[in-house]
Amino acid sequence: MPGTTFNTIVADQARRQPHKLAYRCGEQRWTFADVDRATNRIANALVAMGVVAGDRVAALTKFHVESTLLTLAAAKLGAVCMPVNWRLAPGEVHYIVDHGMARLMLADRGFLPLVDRAAMPMLQQVLVTDGAHDGLPGFHDWYAGASDEFQAVDAKPEDPMLQLYSSGTTGLPKGVVLSHAGLIFNCQLGTLVWDVTANAVVGNALPTFHIAGANMGLFPLFAGATGSSYPDFDPAGFIDAIGRHGITHCFLVPAMILFMLQSPQVKDGDYRTLQLISYGGSPISDRVLTDAMATFGCGFMQVYGLTEIAGSATFLLPDDHAPEGPKARLLRSAGQAVPGARVRIVDPVTLADLPEGQTGEVLIESPGNMIGYWRNPEATAAAFPEGRNANGGWFRSGDGGYMVDGYVYINDRIKDMIISGGENIYPAEIENTLMKHPAVADGAVIGVPDEKWGESVKACVILRPGATATGREIIDWMRERLAHYKCPKSIDFVDTLPRNPSGKLLKRILRAPYWDGKTRGVN
């Protein structure tokens, strides 16, 4: 779609079907005309406070629609929205907002104490998503008086639109800058492969600071469908919403699917409208997957992707979800490259292509590939060691895997990343904190199997001579310094840690006993 941006998409949908329901959340409703008018007003309000093209505005909110409206409004004047992970500790939020140089923060009332503790003097304005509070203006009141006419900038597809933060192996988050074109490419996959049409109802229960949650907010707008938003995921409530709102498509992380299966309401759910459940973000057990297929009676599609490619790299299509027969082995794969993208398996040191069946690092060439890491040209160059090309360049995923007959199997992580409940967790950051504990002499953080979350964080700790500490004491100490989901759920005390002659920690050996006998490692 040459020349298309979300600026033109918003205007086109408002012109073609102004009264069609675009989004719902609780009792609130927005037509496509409402989306255009609201984003024009927000854009005018942003201009009035001095926001210009290239500036960043932040969103610390669970509310999908408001986050999407801010994103679309910022794009109309060439600015970029930065959804921030509301599960982070105050210091982490401060770092992201400061690094992004955000001038405005949209925050839910429940997160205002976090905003206060983060102490972000760079912010010029804080708006409250769910109504004025303690002297701060409510978001909708703030822009309500602005004009609903706005001349959007003549944006180009390659211009930045969204900035999401993805932690790196150094422990410092990196700002992943995504373009209109990259996000539109993933929306096109929604229409072409997921079959999201104008009649679809797309259920979104994922946080907007995740690329999947951001994409699920944009899918309906692109397809002219209806987005149905659920800011707080409740298994029974989401089961009820499927039938009550006629949800046709949704994306869930495996832990959400498990919680729905465990809900007493699951047996009484109305799933007649449900066409497709896409899943990914963390490991899923064969049992959970096959139980879900039998329970919900719709198509299932596994998605493997990353923030840096604006979403999807591979799909395991519904036709390949066969619990029995010759295709049963494919349930352990991540599927084939999405249309328009390519995947290679290379030696992580030499980048030489590896033969079929041999494990190496997964490289992805995709039109969805990021513009780069914000204010970090060195990391951007390292992520694209062969440079860029017309199809986005070959991005180093950091994931280990192999390929057989065009199907990609992800079975390790080159960078030791842990995925727990859809959250990307990097051990280096946790280890840096762990090593500051006065009783810890040495330690390592790994991901171990978890029936609920796919993986959970475990620390293997060597205590200082004469020091004493319990696992509970160390975990509680770390929870005062890091977001709780990053902290270990369990601690094993050991005498030694496996290292090579140069002293490098051998995490593969450390992980091996915990993963012994597990056929499904990573999705």
Q: Note the gap between the termini.
A: 31 Å
Identify the strand order in the major beta sheet.
2-1-10-9-11-12-13-14-15
Q: Total number of helical segments? A: 15
Shape: globular
**Mean pLDDT, as a whole number?**
93
Helix content: 25-40%
Oligomeric assembly: single chain
Question: In what range is the share of β-strand residues?
Answer: 25-35%
What does this structure look like?
30% of the residues lie in helices and 26% in strands. The chain has 523 residues and is of the alpha/beta class. The strands form 6 sheets. It has a 9-stranded mixed sheet. Helix 1 packs across helix 2, helix 4 (90-100) crosses helix 5 (112-118) and helix 7 (180-192) crosses helix 8 (211-223). The longest helix has 17 residues, at 32-48. It is globular and about 65 Å long. It starts with 5 loop residues before the first helix and ends in an 8-residue tail after the last helix.
Properties at a glance:
nine-stranded mixed sheet; 15 helices; single chain; 523 residues; alpha/beta
In a few lines, what is going on in this structure?
By secondary structure, the protein is α/β, with parallel strands linked by helices.
SSE map:
Layout (H helix, E strand, L loop, with lengths): L5 H11 L4 E5 L2 E4 H17 L7 E5 L3 H13 L3 E4 L6 H11 L1 E6 L4 H7 L6 E4 L10 H6 L15 E8 L5 E7 H13 L8 E4 L6 H13 L2 E4 L5 H11 L3 E4 L1 H9 L13 E4 L6 H11 L2 E8 L4 E6 L19 E2 L4 E5 L13 E6 L6 E2 L3 H7 L10 E11 L2 E7 L4 E3 L2 E3 L1 H8 L5 E11 L3 E10 L7 H9 L10 E4 L13 H9 L8
Helix pairs in contact: 1-2, 2-3, 4-5, 7-8, 9-10, 10-11
